[in-house]
UniProtKB/TrEMBL annotation:
<keyword id="KW-0067">ATP-binding</keyword>
<dbReference type="Pfam" id="PF13959">
    <property type="entry name" value="CTE_SPB4"/>
</dbReference>
<dbReference type="InterPro" id="IPR011545">
    <property type="entry name" value="DEAD/DEAH_box_helicase_dom"/>
</dbReference>
<dbReference type="Pfam" id="PF00271">
    <property type="entry name" value="Helicase_C"/>
</dbReference>
<dbReference type="GO" id="GO:0006364">
    <property type="term" value="P:rRNA processing"/>
</dbReference>
<dbReference type="GO" id="GO:0003723">
    <property type="term" value="F:RNA binding"/>
</dbReference>
<feature type="compositionally biased region" description="Basic and acidic residues">
    <location>
        <begin position="561"/>
        <end position="574"/>
    </location>
</feature>
<feature type="region of interest" description="Disordered">
    <location>
        <begin position="501"/>
        <end position="542"/>
    </location>
</feature>
<feature type="region of interest" description="Disordered">
    <location>
        <begin position="561"/>
        <end position="586"/>
    </location>
</feature>
<dbReference type="InterPro" id="IPR025313">
    <property type="entry name" value="SPB4-like_CTE"/>
</dbReference>
<dbReference type="InterPro" id="IPR014014">
    <property type="entry name" value="RNA_helicase_DEAD_Q_motif"/>
</dbReference>
<dbReference type="InterPro" id="IPR014001">
    <property type="entry name" value="Helicase_ATP-bd"/>
</dbReference>
<keyword id="KW-0547">Nucleotide-binding</keyword>
<keyword id="KW-0347">Helicase</keyword>
<feature type="region of interest" description="Disordered">
    <location>
        <begin position="684"/>
        <end position="813"/>
    </location>
</feature>
<comment type="similarity">
    <text>Belongs to the DEAD box helicase family.</text>
</comment>
<dbReference type="InterPro" id="IPR000629">
    <property type="entry name" value="RNA-helicase_DEAD-box_CS"/>
</dbReference>
Length: 829
């Protein structure tokens, strides 16, 4: 049976539509080809010989087409040592503990096997979460996510970045559709606990980058809780530059027969060979001077300066920013907002010459290109931290240099620990001419800027507290540090008071969560040092007045400021309290009381409170106790303050300085000094007297000239005989005298409230006001008119009934005209 094609009105035939079963066949054929490719790829992976040394390029590995094309487009061709050993092992599905030097390509060593694992499993968006990558810091998580986007551009997987500082609600809406997640431990745990419909039951592979940092005491609780949400039938990959082999850590992650891969374990050194490492022995109070001189000597370099705490980073950054060393300055620490942190890392990556002050938040995994110097002003807590810090330079095959500042008390212990880790380091001395003393400038800045002084006090406290909490007392011995000199080197007027609490672990305190889990959009659970911010009202409108009142006491330092500098009688107590870095004191329980004990204590308590004396003020009432917090009231009980002035060199001097006795005696005998002083004063007075006489003579000459000019003007008729001319101008301070014509004009002006006119109009009697016309009921027979006494002034008056009129005349009409006028009035009335 033949069929004819339908024709259009124009005569052209329409193309026949393909049958639906043709598309179905195409899809089935494509699915079959994909299945065959996956099976062939799986056979190639199973046939890998892990002992072979033939893996030198990515093309030698059994990789899928999307992965291979993404790697080629990202310009990765050769395999590094860790990649050549870790990728084939991970492709076979084994658990791995990988360790390699910094900058050796560990990121690709776990990203490539992760993509291949999901590709061979034919993972789709309906299968849920398939791979989880955990990073200890946000910056490292962002870096891993960017590399994943580059090499996985040809895959169809959905990937997401889950870190703090972003909206929790927006993340929760997208999480159920994600196949790959790069996250920080705290935020991921928060989503697993709170986000509805999100789970990791089908997880195929778990990756821990910088695993030793994630597994330490600071992240222990978060990692343990996170692992409970994950299935045990998963593949686990752990990578770091300093890998942990502790059985307890491996048991916590449920590793199954892990393969330990350490490509540089047999090497002579633990750090890259193209890294030059030196250390400088400098006292604690001279570290900032040495650092400033070092920065000034390397203005055309790109350097990272590591400090132990965020408050030190802020203080050094603000101080150097005022000193203007001549190089762009940046600072990065965990307390900054996420947007600011990303902006700083981006700016430093793109900079050619720059100096970045940072904490250990960028010590691990971050890849900054072309870093010339890594400077460690504060001694690292252990050799592993040192390795990660210096690993920010000399990446892969590039060169780099590192310098470590050590106090004399830290030299022996730290150098010995570095030698145990096979770290080659040499001692160098600083040239005296390279040192730049900035102590006087810091004192001047702290004197003029209270905020900078307060920041310096907190930096001092955070550093001393970090030293106190260090466990290795062979390196960190606070009794050998000159804290008074260190305080003076920061520009502080006195040594801040610090109280400690014994028995604390530094990592527990440093990495402890600062706020409980919250479902708010700004909740922070990263445990990487970021301070969470909470909102009391989600959609509340904040006016400019609310913002103004929220800014109170920003320049006026509040109560806890008085705790920084202790009183003389309290400085001896230095071991009972603590100096908390978060500006709050730890509470130590000294005694627990039951209800019965409280009743007994209340019975034993005296009727009135104990009287005590503080700074000369007797505290016997709550009002007196409240006065302690008033600076104005306490100022009456304190001595007068001392005012200082600074010279051009930044040196402080009293406003009134007296010469001491030794210097005075060295100037000569007292009689000679007295005679010399009298002669100098006499010469000064004589010179001043001559100047005064010259000025008086000049004034007399000018007055004489003015008088001659006035006399000449009078003779010419310019002034009247009584005019004073220019003298009036001088006497009135430049205002000319007013003559009689001007006075007459002023008198002729109208006075306010009166009519205008000449003075003659005002000389006469004022016209009396007109009388108000009386009403008809106010008139009577005896009233007389005030007009003229003629007949024309006759007026009718109402009397008796309404309508009746009475005309009265004063005189009897005498003439005919008077009669006519009277008649006319009667007719008109």
């Amino acid at each position: 049976m033949s069929t004819k094609a339908a024709r259009s009105p124009a005569g052209r035939s329409k193309p026949e539509r393909p049958a639906k079963h043709g598309k179905t066949e195409l899809r089935q054929q494509k699915r079959k080809r994909d299945q065959e490719e996956v099976e062939a790829l799986q056979q190639r992976v199973e046939g890998l010989d892990l002992k072979s040394d033939s893996f030198t390029r990515f093309a030698d590995l059994p990789l899928s087409e999307p992965t291979a094309s993404g790697i080629k487009a990202s310009h990765f061709t050769s395999l590094t040592d860790i990649q050549a050993q870790a990728i084939p092992t991970a492709l076979k599905g084994k658990d791995i503990l990988g360790a390699a030097r910094t900058g050796s390509g560990k990121t690709l060593a776990f990203l490539v096997p992760m993509l291949e694992r999901l590709y061979r499993a034919r993972w789709t968006e309906y299968d849920g979460l398939g791979a989880l990558i955990i990073s200890p810091t946000r910056e490292l998580a962002v870096q891993i996510f960017e590399v994943l986007r580059k090499i996985g551009r040809n895959h169809v997987f959905s990937a997401g970045l889950v870190i703090g500082g972003k909206s929790l609600k927006e993340e929760a809406e997208r999480l159920p559709r994600m196949n790959i997640l790069v996250c920080t431990p705290g935020r991921m745990l928060q989503h697993l606990d709170q986000t509805v419909g999100f789970n990791a039951d089908n997880l195929q592979i778990l990756v821990l980058d910088e695993a030793d940092r994630i597994m330490d005491m600071g992240f222990q609780s978060a990692v343990d809780a996170l692992v409970e949400h994950l299935p045990r039938t998963r593949q686990t990959l752990m990578f770091s530059a300093t890998q942990s082999k502790r059985v307890s850590d491996l048991a916590r992650l449920s590793l199954h027969e892990p393969e330990y891969i350490s490509v540089h374990e047999a090497a002579a050194h633990s750090t890259p060979s193209n890294l030059q490492q030196h250390y400088i022995v400098t006292p604690l109070h001279e570290k900032l001077d040495t650092l400033f001189g070092f920065v000034k000597a390397n203005l055309k370099s790109k350097m990272i300066v590591f400090l132990s705490s965020g408050k030190q980073v802020r203080f050094v950054y603000e101080s150097f920013r005022h000193l203007q060393p001549g190089i762009p300055l940046l600072h990065l620490h965990g307390r900054q907002k996420q947007g600011a942190r990303l902006g700083v890392t981006s700016n430093f990556r793109s900079a050619t010459h720059s100096c970045l002050f940072a904490t250990d938040v960028v010590a691990r995994g971050i890849d900054f290109p072309a870093v010339d110097w890594v400077i460690q002003v504060d001694c690292p807590e252990d050799a592993d931290t040192y390795i990660h810090r210096v690993g920010r330079t000399a990446r892969y095959e590039s060169n780099g240099r590192a310098v470590l500042f050590l106090d004399p008390s830290e030299e022996a212990g730290m150098v010995a620990k570095l030698e145990q880790k096979r770290i080659p380091i040499q001692k160098v001395n600083v040239k005296e001419k390279k040192k730049r003393s900035i102590t006087n400038h810091l004192q001047n800045m702290c004197f003029q800027n209270p905020d900078l002084k307060y920041l310096g006090q907190k930096a001092f406290i955070s550093y001393v507290r970090a030293i106190h909490l260090q466990r290795d007392k062979s390196v960190f011995d606070m009794s050998k540090l000159d804290l008074d000199a260190f305080s003076a080197s920061l520009g502080l007027p006195g040594t801040p008071q610090i109280r400690f609490q014994k028995g604390e672990d530094i990592k527990k305190i440093k990495n402890a969560q600062r706020q409980g889990m919250s479902s708010g959009s700004e909740s922070e659970m990263d445990m990487d040092g970021a301070k969470p911010s909470s909102k009391t009202k989600k959609n509340a409108v904040r006016t400019k007045y609310d913002k103004m009142f929220e800014r109170t006491n920003q320049d006026v330092l509040s109560e806890h400021y008085s705790k920084l500098v202790g009183k003389e009688d309290e400085k001896a107590d230095n071991g009972d309290g603590n100096g908390d870095d978060s500006e709050e004191d730890f509470l130590s329980v000294k005694r627990r009381l039951n209800d019965d004990d409280l009743d007994e204590e209340s019975k034993k308590a005296p009727a009135s409170g104990a009287i005590k004396v503080v700074d000369g003020l007797v505290i016997d009432s709550k009002r007196r106790e409240k006065a302690l917090r008033s600076k104005k009231k306490m100022a009456k009980f304190k001595g007068g303050g001392s005012k200082l002035i600074f010279d051009d060199d930044g040196n402080a001097h009293a406003i009134y300085e007296l010469t001491n006795e030794d210097d005075f005696a060295g100037q000569g005998p007292a009689d000679e000094l007295r005679r010399r002083f009298i002669e100098e004063e006499a010469a000064r007075v004589k010179e001043a007297d001559a100047d005064d006489k010259m000025a008086a003579k000049q004034r007399r000459r000018e007055k004489k000239e003015r008088r001659k000019e006035r006399e000449a003007a009078e003779a010419a008729g310019m002034y009247g005989p009584g005019d004073d001319g220019g003298d009036d101008v001088a006497d009135l301070g430049g205002i000319p005298a007013i003559d009689d014509d001007q006075l007459d004009f002023i008198r002729s002006l109208p006075i306010a409230g009166q009519g205008g006119g000449d003075a003659s109009d005002r000389d006469g009697d004022d016209e009396p006001p007109r009388k108000k016309k009386k009403k008809w009921f106010q008139q009577d027979e005896d009233d007389d008119d005030d007009g003229d006494n003629d007949i024309n002034n006759a007026k009718p008056k109402k009397k008796g009934k309404p309508g009746a009129k009475v005309f009265e005349v004063d005189e009897e009409p005498q003439t005919l005209e008077d009669l006519e006028a009277l008649a006319t009035g009667l007719l008109n009335g």
